[in-house]
Write a structure and sequence with these properties.
It is built from nine helices and no strands. The protein is mostly helical and about 210 residues long.
């Protein structure tokens, strides 16, 4: 094995740093291009060809960062899920006077996230979501259910297992209203937010 000198090590470090930075920039450019395409169109319409063109990156280079489209979409779903969970976890660090207030906070944060992130509307409600991304979505839902349970545990009139069953129904109620609002207005209105608050809170606590 050849011996490296101090100068060689410095050159190697600079070179590696440059490649890593450039790689991160290209990966981020591909992610941002994908998000923009999905936001303006449909998740089923994307391809590596359109993504590479949008990001102004050679098509062969795309495969260096992502194995396939599923891998790319999975990363976007995971990124959005982590960001949403960070917002929701604030419920544990905020003083509320009742379970109802905590549920309202969690629902409001979900709605706010969807309204502020058009990409989340398209991805979370995409019928053609890849199985790998669906698995991440299920994991997100599980963590969210734990936060809702934590928020109501002191006033809960039923067991944890039964609560989780009701939570899944509550999610369906939320999604039905949200999808209707988004399809017609591209956002969830104030009046729809009030409906979600009233129906979901009542269903989870009673």
């Amino acid at each position: 094995m050849a011996t490296l000198t101090g100068n060689d090590l410095k050159k190697k470090t600079r070179s590696s740093g440059y490649k890593t930075k450039r790689g991160d920039q290209r990966r981020d450019a591909l992610l941002n291009a994908t998000k923009e395409i999905i936001t303006l169109g449909d998740i089923s319409e994307i391809s590596f060809v359109t993504i590479a063109k949008k990001a102004e990156i050679p098509l062969p280079s795309v495969y260096h960062y992502f194995k396939n489209l599923d891998d790319l979409i999975m990363m976007i779903v995971e990124e959005l899920g982590k960001e949403l969970l960070e917002d929701l976890k604030l419920v544990k660090n905020t003083n509320f006077h009742s379970s109802e207030e905590r549920i309202h906070f969690l629902l409001d944060e979900n709605i706010k996230f969807l309204n502020e992130h058009p990409i989340a509307q398209k991805v979370f409600y995409a019928p053609s979501l890849p199985d790998s991304a669906k698995a991440i979505d299920k994991k997100l839902m599980l963590e969210m259910s734990e936060l809702f349970f934590w928020s109501v545990r002191s006033e809960l009139k039923r067991g944890k297992e039964e609560f989780f069953e009701r939570f899944l129904v509550a999610v369906q109620i939320f999604d039905a209203i949200a999808k209707h609002e988004i399809s017609n207005k591209n956002r969830i209105s104030v009046s729809a937010t009030e409906d979600i608050r009233k129906i979901v809170t009542s269903y989870l606590l009673n």
